[in-house]
Amino acid sequence: MSWGMGLGMGVGSAHRQTWAELRRYPSALAGVALILLLVALALHTLATVPYDQAVASWRSGEARLPINARPLWSDWLSPGRAPRSQSLIATEIDSEAFPGGRRLTQRIALDYAYDDFPSELALFLKPRDSERAAFLRLTWRTPDGREINLGSRRLVGETRVALSQDRVLEQRLGRPAHLGLLAAADGEAVLSGRHTLTLEAVFFDPDAELASELLLYGRVHGLAGTDHQRRDLGLALRWGTPIALAFGLVAAVGTTLSTLVIAAVGVWYRGWVDALIQRLTEVNMILPLLPILVMVGTLYSTSIWLMLGVVVALGIFSAGIKTYRAMLLPIREAPYIEAARAYGASHLRIVMRYMLPRILPVLIPTFVTLIPTFVFLEASLAVLGLGDPVMPTWGKVLNDAQAQSALYNGYYYWVLAPAALLMLSGLGFAMLGFALDRVFNPRLRSL
Amino acid sequence: MSALVQVDDLSVHFEVRQWGFLRLGAVQAVDRVALTLAEGESVAIVGESGCGKSTLARTLLGLHRPTQGEVRFAGRALSGLRRRELKAYRASAGYVQQDPFGATAPFLDVRRILAEPLIIHGVARAEREARIRAALEEVHLTPVEELLGKFPHMLSGGQQQRLVIARALILGPRLLVADEPVSMLDASVRVEILELLRRIQGQRRLTLAFITHDLSTVRHYAERIFVMYAGRLVESAPVDDLLDAPRHPYTQALLGAIADPDAANAHRQRELPAGEPPSLLDPPRGCRFHPRCPHAMAGLCDRDDPPDFDVGKHHLSACWLHRE
Amino acid sequence: MPEALLEVEGLTLDYHTRGGVMRAVDDVGFAVGRGEALVVLGESGCGKSSLARALMRLLPRNAGGLGGRVRLAGRELHLLDDETFRREVQWQGLALVMQASMNALNPVVKVGEQVAEPLRVHLGWERRRALARAAEVFELVGLPGDFLRRYPFELSGGMRQRAVLAMALVAEPALVILDEPTSALDVLTQAGIMNALKRVKAELGTGFILITHDVATSSELADRVALMYAGQLVEVADAETFFSAPGHPYAQALMASVPKLRQRERPRAIPGEPPSLLDPPAGCRFAARCPHRFADCDRLPPSFAPAPRQEVRCWLYKEASR
């Protein structure tokens, strides 16, 4: 016999009726819709973004993503069109062999049309069949005919030339390259029109090839923007969904089940067993959960699974035991329980099939409203800096935002999106839970 | 007639403890009770609430462990039964409780309520349905087809008690213990249920122990009566002897308190014993009725437990008045 | 007949339930004389407790459609607003002892204070005087005076019930309504309380309406008996008449179903069940279970008077005067 059977017996018969009742509460429908939305998002994420990829991307960021880009939708809130990231591939215009090597000339044409400067400029260079170090000279030509020498550099293997971080160039232009190169000669304004970057590479290998790409990092990216480490916030928000739901669900199931079973054991056996459970519960109730979690996180590990384990372990002897005990005590004394003993039902059967189904009506709403509290707990831990070191979660996003003074710096979306997701999940489960409470506990209906 | 149930010197005391271990005392719910129920006999155990009659009933069913003494069923002591034997015993002893409204799980339908004992005792699925239907027929819960899918709250009080009786009978018991089976039912339904129990008892040759506080319901539904007071058995006799000529002062008081419908009742005060039944945590020494008894003899009733005196054919009374 | 104290005419009470409107009390009329005890007898669900609630205006939330006329000592109670009724009629005019009300005592207030409360709240008596009066009433219902200073948990169920009774009597109401006052109590305790009620009735001249399902208990107090079936009164008669020669077939069947301690006659069950109050039959409500059923029973019978001071709602007595 299993818990599931006991549960099925209680709910199965009344199940259709419950749903019919539930549909009378618009808030319940809204709650279910929100939960379904979150679950769909979680499943979609799991199906489309593999875990390893998500973790790797979250750990080191993506070189091709801009820093602190706003989400795309922020464009609607401000005038003008913010620059998108633009990738431009070089076209080869000249190749000249010389003894022991070859010289390549490439050109990248940039038709710049945005009203604002990009956030960064970088050049990705991938030489092939080149053993020895090559020599590279870069020249920028503006639409108004100015030629700007971007200097020369050695080229060994695959290289990312971070033009915006070139201090020498910055001194020469008076400002970082992505501003200086695209601005008009005299002023602040963006100079639109065709800019041209010319690359002259001298290889000391006769068969060497060069693939080059100029990347203008935009000011907006994706639905959620990016953070200070070139990480896509959207990724963290999406991956945070299954993690949050799983954490909330596992913690809620774990604490509810263990609490329930222990309460039932205490009520059934009474005497010193019950007394011991009650005293343990009372001691445990005055132990503060959050500080203990902070301690574990600080001294041992901040792995989310460890935290989950600690939450469930501390939740076993939680206040829920008192509630369930109070509900189970009168049920234990019900004549039908005694009748069951008289016809030979085992202890396990009585507890599982005759006692627990009676408290399901209270259990289910409580359980549903418990889920978001654990989601919030995980987020709180992460905000306190005790988030899982590997996994992207909503709490970690908030933690980073706080560390980077996101609101002070105007990165409101950085706080808004994870906070909204947290609130939506809380709202969804709470609305469903409250409606379930009303359906299952008719006494509340008239309130 | 051979003895089916034999109760020897049975005491059931409940320890009262604080915090699960500090012993504060013991409630002497049943104290040194001896009785024998013959196979196929129907007896009534009568007394006020708290006199220990329900505890006695539960001990007969093996639901309480005797503190002292023994309950024997068909010659075997219940306390000596192994787990499996105890389970088998539970199939041979049926139990009907006072409160039909709480005696069945509210979330199970009639079919399932009756199936549970069968499942527990390993009756094959194929056989179950037939036995469930037969049980419903036997207690006249018809139409069977219509009732199988109903939940207890959809049934009337009388129907619910029939269902409880059907459940008690479905395993084919030899002993049926009915603890106040009609006290929560309406007057017109009471008789039906009592008649039903009487008929089934006769047909199945069951041993029926019928626990009640109401002596007026006993006459036609039991052959012998046992009267209990404060945990002790005070008098036992065949029904008519006891109702017509009670010998123990407590039985006399109890009978005197019961009204039959009569307009003259309204114009006379009833003779009643003073006071209330004693606390079973600290019952009085000697005869437990002596503080209320109009015939109490100082130096005797308040010192020594009265033995059972033989006061007639199969008529026992535990009172010092009979010592001559 | 003594001077009428309470007169009830055409009392109806409806409940709104999931299944529709249920008429729990249907056109009930009776009178109680000064110092007289009327027993309202009926099985569970017949509407007798609703009748008590309707008289006391203690209606549940789903009640609707309370109709009819109630006169107490000539005063038209149905014309009073709730506030006046509560202030002027409750406790002093009508008092109610509810089923299991012994469990409704406040566990943390001494019994004496609770019993004296109606005097202090409704009549504005000062504490000492009210407690002295409570002590008198305690004695009347058979409780020692020092019980005034006890808490409810120090009293047995029977004593608590007596205390509740004392509380109902303390403001000397003209009429006390007792709703199943002894049904949860033991035989001896029950008999003791009935003794106390008889004493009160004799000494104070209080009128009683005793609502019960227990025929034997009802005979302990009754001057008159009103038998209720499926929301309607089917017979109202003097106790002598009712217990010796009941007129209505239901009354006869009910009397025959009561096991009697001192008679060898075997009780007989009443076959069938009472009709649902959600959809009662158009004719006589007992017709389906009645051994004397005939064609007239398809119409609702009015009350006939086969004997003096006896009203029976049955077509068998159609020859008798109305």
Automatic annotation (TrEMBL), chain A:
SUPFAM superfamilies from the UniProt entry: MetI-like
Cited PROSITE patterns: ABC_TM1
Keywords: Membrane, Transmembrane, Transmembrane helix, Transport
Chain ranges passing through the membrane: 28-49, 243-269, 289-317, 359-384, 411-436
Protein name from the UniProt record: ABC transporter permease
Intracellular or extracellular location(s): Cell membrane
CDD domains for this protein: TM_PBP2 (cd06261)
Organism whose genome encodes this protein: Halomonas salifodinae
Organism placement in taxonomy: Bacteria, Pseudomonadati, Pseudomonadota, Gammaproteobacteria, Oceanospirillales
Family listed: Belongs to the binding-protein-dependent transport system permease family.
TrEMBL record, chain B:
Any one Pfam family match given in the protein's UniProt record, by short name: oligo_HPY
CDD domains in alphabetical order: ABC_NikE_OppD_transporters
Molecular function via GO: ATP binding
Gene3D superfamilies in the cross-refs: P-loop containing nucleotide triphosphate hydrolases (3.40.50.300)
Highest taxon, organism lineage: Bacteria
Boundaries of every ABC transporter domain copy: 5-255
SUPFAM superfamilies given in the database record: P-loop containing nucleoside triphosphate hydrolases
UniProt entry keywords in alphabetical sequence: ATP-binding, Nucleotide-binding, Transport
InterPro entries: AAA+_ATPase, ABC_transp_ATP-bind, ABC_transporter-like_ATP-bd, ABC_transporter-like_CS, Oligopep_ABC_C, P-loop_NTPase
SMART domains membership: AAA
Protein name: ABC transporter ATP-binding protein
Automatic annotation (TrEMBL), chain C:
Protein name as annotated: ABC transporter ATP-binding protein
Keywords: ATP-binding, Nucleotide-binding, Transport
Coiled coil: none
ABC transporter domain: residues covered: 6-255
Stored InterPro entries: AAA+_ATPase, ABC_transporter-like_ATP-bd, ABC_transporter-like_CS, Oligopep_ABC_C, P-loop_NTPase
One function term, GO molecular function aspect: ATP binding
SMART domains: AAA (SM00382)
Organism domain of life: Bacteria
Matching NCBIfam families: oligo_HPY
Organism name: Halomonas salifodinae
Xref: Pfam families: ABC_tran, oligo_HPY
PANTHER family: MALTOSE ABC TRANSPORTER, ATP-BINDING PROTEIN (PTHR43067:SF3), OLIGOPEPTIDE/DIPEPTIDE ABC TRANSPORTER, ATPASE SUBUNIT (PTHR43067)
